[in-house]
Every structure is written in structure tokens, then in C-alpha cells.
């Protein structure tokens, strides 16, 4: 039997999540962010599934846009890091992409590009994240000096540092500073990613850039039970189920250890299942003892270190457990956020790290 390690991609969840988020931002247009192979879900898969609801897509770099074009995706593509070299300006025109330019060097490349081969550009503004973008105080001057590059399409973009935290008013600070510095420009703007769109609806503008939310990842640090405002939180479905199967079972006596470094020791006679997934597949090596999985409808715990190709699970409490049983690592029953918390990371990293060794299988219902 072939190895049963797969990432099931739920097309209906992607569609529903996109529609849910876009519906809560009716005054805006929403585009799906499908950089980093659509956060590990397969960019071509996701673009094909969402192309009738997302009128544009966003990626990080030109190579990602070219791969989508070669797969037949026709919607305009926004390239969030803009051009990494001068020749990408003409490439962007050729491939119907919009470059988000963040520095003067990129604008100089654009000016050298033949006028009829210039792509549309957006301009990135640094409103406080201090990662990319023109300083707030320079943006009006940049626009004035580069009128030859500005079209009706040219949108001013900024990105928030803490939009997932509804209690951190830095989002409000960034938004106010941004709005003040671009007020005189009357150009379209794009502010919200999925956490901002959900937690700070006032950030919804001409274009929202939706990433983690469409994949069903966590968009807020607010706990539904803790937040009186949580009624507004959208119900998002996991778009990926990572699963594998049991390839071996053994009974061990009390006091025996399991795995590299002997980091777990049985306190009583135990049944240990070996599952065909490891850190080479993208299952995090940092997952500690106690990280949950689902087998036969029951939660069970990771025991011992994650190896390159395998993990070990304590299945002592599961009746009739057998070689071949399906194991859910995350998905409909085990939330990816819970696993991320155990691994000391975030949903984004877990999704994007699933390696090419794991086939993505698209399910339509
Ligand atoms: C500039 C930019 N916009 C939008 C997004 C999408 O953000 P999210 O996945 O949090 O919705 C990202 C993701 O990192 C980004 O870098």
C-alpha cells in the first residue's frame, strides 16, 4: 500500500471562507493572497478554485505570478514585493501583473522601462510596521514626482503590525497616520489583511488582501468566550486536513522510552503507534509530548521526538486500533492553531512548511 500521508485541500471551505470574508466587507473588493504556494495549499489549485470569486490574486514575487500564468490563470496578479530587478518591470507588463513598489530604486527601473511596456504599479507606504514602503511623510512627494507612472489603478497600500489583536490600538494609530498622510492624494487605498478586516472593519477600503482567513487559520487573538464582541467573528472552516496513517504498532512495558533522545518514558504498559509523517514532511519537530492527533474519532498524544519521516503516538486508550488507521494531524477535528500553539509557532508557518513530499489532494465536498 502506498504511503497515506496527504494534505487534503477542501475546495468548498476555501470558497466559503472567501465569500464569508468578502461579504463582511461589502464596500471593498477582496483579493485572495496566494503567495508561498497559497500558504502551502497549492497556488494553482487555489487560484482555480477561487478564480470566479476573487477578481485578482496577490503573490509575493514575480516567479509566483509567472507560474500561475503558465498554469492558465488569467486574473490580474498583484506582486506584493514589487520588482526585485529591473527586467521584472517589463515582465510584469507582459504577464498582466501589478507591481507594489516600495522604494525609489524600483521606481527608477520603471522609468527606464519603455512607456508602452510599463505595468501598473501600486505604492507601498510604511505606516509603522517598518518593513517595506515609502515613509508617510514622503508619499505625497513621491506621487507628485512620479506622475508619469501613476494611473487610475495606482493604489496606496499599507500593512498592519498587530491587526490580529483587537485590544492593541496600534492598528488604529497606523490607520490614522496613513489616512492623514494620503488625504490630499485622492487615490484608491488597500489596508486590510484578513485579521484587520475581521478585527478592525474600519480598515476595509478599496481592496482587501485576504490570506490566512481564506485558509481557515486564526484571524484574531480574541477568544470567542472572552470577547463580548466575538459575535462578529466569522465562522471560518479549515481548508487543509493533514493526515497520515499508522504503519506499525507495538506494546511496551512501563519504564521503556520512545524515540530519539528518550524524551518520553511510559509510566504504565502502553501501546505505541508509529505514524508515517515527520519533519521532512513539514510536521514541526518542535511539537512536544502531548501534541494532539485524532485516531478513530479519539484524541491521542504525540510521545517522543518527531523524527524525519515518522512520529509516535500513545494509543493505549483506543480500542481496536490497527495498522492502516487514518491519523489526522490537523484539520476538521484538530485545529491547526492548537498544534501551532504546542509547537510554539503560528498557523501560517505550519501551513507553508508542508513539504513537496506531501501530495495535495483537492476535495470538492
Ligand atoms: C502585504 C501583505 N498583504 C496581505 C497579506 C495577507 O495577510 P493575512 O494572511 O494575514 O490575511 C500578507 C501576508 O503576509 C502581506 O504580507
UniProtKB/TrEMBL annotation:
Domain Alanine racemase C-terminal residues, every copy: 239-363
UniProt-listed SMART domains: Ala_racemase_C (SM01005)
Keywords from the named record: Isomerase, Pyridoxal phosphate
EC numbers for this chain: 5.1.1.1
Catalytic machinery residues: 35 (proton acceptor), 260 (proton acceptor)
Domain of life: Bacteria
Catalytic activity: L-alanine = D-alanine
One Gene Ontology molecular-function label: alanine racemase activity
CDD domains (alphabetical): PLPDE_III_AR_proteobact
GO BP terms in the entry: D-alanine biosynthetic process
GO CC annotations on file: cytosol
Coiled coil: none
Any Pfam family the entry gives: Ala_racemase_C
Cofactor: pyridoxal 5'-phosphate
This protein's record includes keyword Isomerase: yes
Binding of substrate, residues: 131, 308
Pathway per the UniProt entry: Amino-acid biosynthesis; D-alanine biosynthesis; D-alanine from L-alanine: step 1/1
Enzyme class: isomerase
Modified residues (N6-(pyridoxal phosphate)lysine): 35
Family to which this protein belongs: Belongs to the alanine racemase family.
Its biological purpose: Catalyzes the interconversion of L-alanine and D-alanine. May also act on other amino acids.
Classification via PANTHER family: ALANINE RACEMASE (PTHR30511), ALANINE RACEMASE, CATABOLIC-RELATED (PTHR30511:SF0)
Annotated protein name in UniProt: Alanine racemase
Source organism of the structure: Alteromonas hispanica
Gene symbol of the encoding locus: alr
Amino acid at each position: 500500500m502506498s504511503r497515506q500521508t496527504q494534505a487534503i485541500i477542501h475546495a468548498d471551505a476555501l470558497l466559503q471562507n472567501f465569500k464569508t470574508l468578502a461579504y463582511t466587507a461589502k464596500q471593498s473588493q477582496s483579493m485572495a493572497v496566494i503567495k508561498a504556494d497559497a500558504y502551502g495549499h497549492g497556488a494553482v489549485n487555489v487560484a482555480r478554485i477561487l478564480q470566479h470569486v476573487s477578481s485578482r490574486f496577490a503573490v509575493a514575487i514575480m516567479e509566483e505570478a509567472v507560474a500561475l500564468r503558465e498554469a492558465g490563470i488569467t486574473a490580474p496578479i498583484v506582486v506584493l514585493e514589487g520588482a526585485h530587478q529591473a527586467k521584472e518591470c517589463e515582465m510584469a507588463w507582459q504577464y498582466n501583473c501589478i507591481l507594489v513598489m516600495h522604494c525609489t530604486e524600483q521606481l527608477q527601473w520603471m522609468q527606464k522601462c519603455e512607456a508602452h511596456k510599463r505595468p501598473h504599479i501600486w505604492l507601498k507606504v510604511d505606516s509603522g510596521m517598518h518593513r517595506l514602503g515609502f515613509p508617510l511623510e514622503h508619499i505625497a512627494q513621491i506621487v507628485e514626482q512620479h506622475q508619469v507612472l501613476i494611473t487610475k489603478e495606482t493604489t496606496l497600500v499599507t500593512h498592519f503590525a498587530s491587526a490580529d489583536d483587537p485590544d492593541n490600538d496600534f492598528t488604529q494609530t497606523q490607520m490614522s497616520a496613513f489616512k492623514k498622510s494620503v488625504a490630499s492624494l485622492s487615490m484608491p487605498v488597500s489596508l486590510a489583511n484578513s485579521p484587520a478586516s475581521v478585527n478592525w472593519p474600519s480598515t476595509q477600503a478599496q481592496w482587501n488582501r485576504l490570506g490566512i482567513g481564506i485558509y481557515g487559520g486564526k484571524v484574531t487573538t480574541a477568544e470567542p468566550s472572552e470577547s463580548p464582541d466575538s459575535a462578529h467573528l466569522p465562522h471560518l472552516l479549515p481548508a487543509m486536513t493533514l493526515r497520515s496513517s499508522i504503519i506499525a504498532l507495538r506494546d511496551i512495558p512501563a519504564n521503556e522510552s520512545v524515540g530519539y533522545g528518550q524524551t518520553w518514558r511510559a509510566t504504565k504498559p502502553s501501546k505505541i503507534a508509529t505514524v508515517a509523517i515527520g519533519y521532512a514532511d513539514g510536521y514541526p519537530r518542535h511539537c512536544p509530548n502531548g501534541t494532539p492527533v485524532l485516531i478513530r474519532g479519539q484524541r491521542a498524544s504525540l510521545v517522543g521526538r518527531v523524527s524525519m519521516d515518522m512520529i509516535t503516538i500513545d494509543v493505549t486508550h483506543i480500542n481496536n486500533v490497527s495498522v492502516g488507521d487514518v491519523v489526522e494531524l490537523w484539520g476538521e477535528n484538530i485545529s491547526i492553531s492548537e498544534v501551532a500553539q504546542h509547537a510554539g509557532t503560528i498557523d501560517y508557518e505550519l501551513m507553508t512548511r508542508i513539504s513537496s513530499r506531501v501530495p495535495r489532494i483537492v476535495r470538492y465536498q
